[in-house]
Amino acid sequence: MSSLPDSSAGVSRAAGSSILVLNGPNLGRLGTREPDVYGSGTLDDLRTVLEGDAPESSIALRQTDDEAVLLGWLHEAADSGAPVILNAGAWIHYSYALRDAVSLVTKAGGTVIEVHLSNPHAREEFRHTSVISGVATGVIAGFGFESYRLALAYIRRNAH
Question: Residues 138, 106: contact at Cβ < 8 Å?
C-alpha cells in the first residue's frame, strides 16, 4: 500500500492537470537510504519541489513497496490519460508486468517518463537493464531530484 496518502485517486481525463508521480520499492526510505547515492531529500521534500515547479497542476506523488499497487496506478493512468513520472526502483530491471502496464499507458497515447535519481549505467551491471525503457516515452537518469523536475517540465510543455 502507499506509504504516502494521496487524495487524488480517481484522476480523470477532464482534470487534465493531474500528474502522477509514482515511486516503487524502498523509495519511501529516501533521506536515510544511501544518501551518497540517492541524496538526503525525502519524498515529502520532492513533493514540495514539484508542487513549487507546477503550482497549477495537481501533483499526485505516491510510493509503494507492493508491485500490484503500482500496476493499479498505471492502469488508472491508462484509463484517465494522466501523465506519469515513474521511478519504479528495482522493478525496472526485471518486472515484465510493469513493462506491460507502462505499455498500456503509452499505447493509449499517454506519457510515461522513466526517472532515476542515480545513473544506473554508472552502477552495478544488473542496474544497466531497464525492461520498461523501450515502452516509456522517455528516460531521465542521474540528476537526483532534478530528474523528476526535468520530467515534469517535459510533461508541462507537451502532455497537457
Answer: no
